[in-house]
Design a protein that fits this description.
single chain; alpha+beta; Alpha-Beta Plaits; six-stranded antiparallel sheet; about 25% helix
C-alpha cells in the first residue's frame, strides 16, 4: 500500500530528529522507501511560545496494516523521547500517517486522511512536492487544494 507520512520536530536538533526518523522509516519491516520531500521550516501551529518546526513528508510502500504502521511510528517517536505535554505543543518528533492508499479510516486510534491535511501548509506543500498529481480521498486533487492553503510562513529549509 502506498502511504505518506508527515514528520515534524521542534526540539533537540529538529533537523537531526527528522533525518534520524527518515532512517528509521527506511528500516520498517515489509516496507519500501520511495521518496522524501525537502525539509521545511514552519511556525508552530499551536502555542506560539515554542520554536519553529522542521517538517517533511515521505512516501513508502508497505505491507503493514494501518494500525501496525501506527504502532511502528509511535515506537519511533518514543525512541526519540516524544512526550505529549500539551495539545499542539513542542515535541522531539511527531510522525503522522497522512494517507494510506485511498483508504478512509476513522476509529478511536487513527484518522486517515489525517485531519486538517488540506489546511496545513507544512503538510500539503511537501506532499505536493513528492506527488503533484495525488488525489486526497474526500478532499480532491492536491493542486486546487494548494491554491486554497496559504503558506503561513512555510519556507523550504533545504533541498532533499
Amino acid at each position: 500500500m502506498r502511504v505518506f507520512i508527515g514528520l515534524g520536530s521542534n526540539l533537540a536538533d529538529p533537523k537531526g530528529q527528522v533525518q534520524a526518523a527518515q532512517k528509521a522509516l527506511q528500516a520498517l519491516p515489509t516496507t519500501t522507501w520511495l521518496a522524501s520531500s525537502s525539509l521545511y521550516k514552519s511556525p508552530p501551529m499551536g502555542p506560539q511560545d515554542q520554536p519553529d518546526y522542521i517538517n517533511a513528508v515521505v512516501a513508502l510502500d508497505t505491507e503493514l496494516s494501518p494500525h501496525d504502521l501506527l504502532d511502528c511510528l509511535q515506537q519511533i517517536e518514543q525512541q526519540h523521547g516524544r512526550v505529549r505535554e500539551r495539545h499542539w505543543g513542542e515535541r522531539t518528533l511527531d510522525l503522522d500517517i497522512l494517507l494510506y492508499g485511498e483508504d478512509i479510516i476513522a476509529d478511536d486510534r487513527l484518522q486517515v486522511p489525517h485531519p486538517g491535511i488540506a489546511q496545513r501548509a507544512f503538510v500539503i506543500y511537501p506532499l505536493a512536492e513528492i506527488d503533484a498529481d495525488i488525489v486526497i480521498p474526500g478532499k480532491g486533487a492536491i493542486q486546487p487544494l494548494l491554491t486554497q492553503c496559504p503558506r503561513d510562513g512555510l519556507t523550504r529549509f533545504e533541498n532533499k
